[in-house]
Amino acid sequence: MDLIASIDRKLDQLASQSLTRRRRVAETRCAPRQVVDGRPLLAFCSNDYLGLAAHPRVIEALRAGAELYGAGSGASHLVSGHSAAHAQFEERVAQFVSPHLVEARALYLCTGYMANLAVLTALGSEPDAMIFSEALNHASLIDGARLAKAGVTVYPHGDLDTLACQLTASSASTRIVVTDSVFSMDGDLAPLPGLLELCERHGAWLVVDDAHGFGVLGAHGRGALEHFALRSPHLVYIGTLGKAAGVGGAFVAAHASVIELMIQRARPYIYTTAAPPALAHALLASLDIIGGEEGAALRDRLSALVAQLDHELRLERWQRPASQTPIQPIIIGSNDEALRAAAALHEQGLWVPAIRPPTVAPGTARLRVTLSAAHTHEDVAQLAAALNKLERT
Ligand SMILES: *Cc1c(COP(=O)(O)O)cnc(C)c1O
């Protein structure tokens, strides 16, 4: 009984700090208009930036993939779970991002979380390697760095000068700089051109987690590397596929030797059952849409919605850090006030999540608005009006 009581004390402590999280049950597909816990809501919280999670072609490809390959893969990739669908997707996505890499090859993994563990443990497998990790990196990169045998140095957010000093001072055998491209709670971009220049100068790898950029940034949706027109054999690129691609999983694209090392050594790739092949089959359709004319039109539409929100919001007390991406945070400060704001929006049928520590720094609790090409201009106008009014009450 004492064991249970000690857990309950921890839970009570979270509750007393307004840090208890609860899950809402979505009863309909991922789309702006959903039924959640029995109630219709207009949602501004998914990372389905292009609306592909409910796209008829992607859904049909998922169905066709299940017919072709069955429901599950049955084993890990190195045993017998590697299907033609996985292989095709890897080839196609490697080609898609190849303008930005040298001798590009790609590897499909079950989740972005696992892809980040896989990359950092494979590249940082030696104790005398060093990982230079951006302060606002996603939890999965932090966990990957913890799991790697390499040492870890954190550099301040966006601070190229401090990183340059740290690289100069380091005598590590292998140096790995790792960063989110689009910061998931702020929506700002990492200074990737400066980071790549530093990495080239110091003979370091640059690992870029483009979870929120792939499909969204760049004229063809190739992501942050296309946005900044970067190319290098020392880039290791991670694109996640549950966000703009609308399905699930992730890929790592890099020089063929990096990918071969991961197949041989990366435990989060090797020791897990391969994702259902139907997902990879559905992703072939997503990739087609992202890279084609439809994808370009969806990105134009998304940009117009972001500009509209920016234009219509009139906030005085709450802070809005500059963000050109569909991630539009509204920083409120206290956990309580952020929760009250989210609850008040919910009363009006709007679903905007309140994000609290430890996901963000203490004192920066916020509403995290995300926009999707599936939203309408009326949806955005409704949200802006509700936020403007709420801030004044
Ligand atoms: C969502 C996210 C991940 C994890 O990807 P999943 O496929 O959801 O596991 C990794 N990095 C960043 C920056 C993310 O936002």
From TrEMBL:
Its cofactor is pyridoxal 5'-phosphate. The modification N6-(pyridoxal phosphate)lysine is found at residue 243. The keyword Acyltransferase applies. It comes from the Bacteria. Pyridoxal 5'-phosphate binds at residues 112-113, 184, 212, 240. It catalyses: 6-carboxyhexanoyl-[ACP] + L-alanine + H(+) = (8S)-8-amino-7-oxononanoate + holo-[ACP] + CO2. GO terms for biological process: biotin biosynthetic process. It is an enzyme of class 2 (transferase). Substrate binds at residues 21, 138, 359. Gene3D superfamilies: Aspartate Aminotransferase, domain 1 (3.90.1150.10), Type I PLP-dependent aspartate aminotransferase-like (Major domain) (3.40.640.10). GO terms for molecular function: 8-amino-7-oxononanoate synthase activity; pyridoxal phosphate binding. It holds the Pfam family Aminotran_1_2. Pathway: Cofactor biosynthesis; biotin biosynthesis. Residues 41-387 form the Aminotransferase class I/classII large domain. Its EC number is 2.3.1.47. Keywords: Acyltransferase, Biotin biosynthesis, Pyridoxal phosphate, Transferase. Homodimer. NCBIfam families: bioF. HAMAP family: BioF_aminotrans_2. Belongs to the class-II pyridoxal-phosphate-dependent aminotransferase family. BioF subfamily. Catalyzes the decarboxylative condensation of pimeloyl-[acyl-carrier protein] and L-alanine to produce 8-amino-7-oxononanoate (AON), [acyl-carrier protein], and carbon dioxide. This is 8-amino-7-oxononanoate synthase. It comes from Massilia horti.
